[in-house]
Design goal:
The protein has about 140 residues and is mostly helical. The chain has a domain of about 80 residues. The radius of gyration is 18 Å and the shape is globular. The termini are far apart. The mean pLDDT is about 90.
Length: about 140
C-alpha cells in the first residue's frame, strides 16, 4: 500500500509544476508561495477540524515541534520559494529533474550526521540520479 501512495505522490508532484509554471508567468514567486501556503493552510485547518485530528497538534512535544518546524522552514518555505523562482525563470522539464535530485543531499547528510552506512547500492543510486539529471538537463 505504501508504494501505491508513493506512485500517487509521483503523479501529483509530476503534475503540480505544470500548474505552477503557468501561474508564475505574471506573478512574483513570493506572492505565489504566499497564496499557495494560505490555500493549503485553510484546507488543512478545515480537514483537521472536520476529522477531529486538529487536536493532535497539541500533543506534539517541544523537541519534535521544533524539528518539524525547522523542516517546514527549510523545505516548505525556503526550498519551495527557490523552486518557484527556478520554475519561473527556467523550463519546467529542466528545473524539476534538478530539484528532484534532493535525495543526494539527504543520503550525504544521513551518512555524515546519522552514521548511516555508505553501501554500493546507495553509491549506484546516487550515480543514477546524477546521470538522469545530466541527461534530462541537456
Amino acid at each position: 500500500m505504501g508504494y501505491l501512495y508513493a506512485l500517487l505522490t509521483a503523479l501529483l508532484w509530476g503534475m503540480a509544476p505544470l500548474f505552477g509554471k503557468l501561474g508564475l508567468e505574471s506573478v512574483d514567486a513570493l506572492a505565489a508561495m504566499t497564496l499557495r501556503t494560505m490555500v493549503v493552510g485553510v484546507v488543512l485547518l478545515l480537514f483537521g477540524g472536520f476529522t477531529g485530528q486538529l487536536a493532535n497538534v497539541t500533543s506534539i512535544g517541544l523537541k519534535a515541534g521544533l524539528l518539524i518546524a525547522a523542516e517546514g522552514l527549510l523545505a516548505s518555505l525556503l526550498g519551495h520559494l527557490a523552486y518557484y523562482q527556478a520554475l519561473k525563470l527556467g523550463d519546467a522539464s529542466r528545473v524539476v529533474p534538478v530539484t528532484a535530485a534532493f535525495p543526494l543531499v539527504t543520503v550525504l547528510m544521513a551518512i555524515l550526521f546519522f552514521g548511516e552506512p555508505l553501501t554500493w547500492q546507495r553509491v549506484l543510486g546516487a550515480a543514477l540520479v546524477v546521470g538522469g539529471v545530466l541527461l534530462i538537463k541537456g
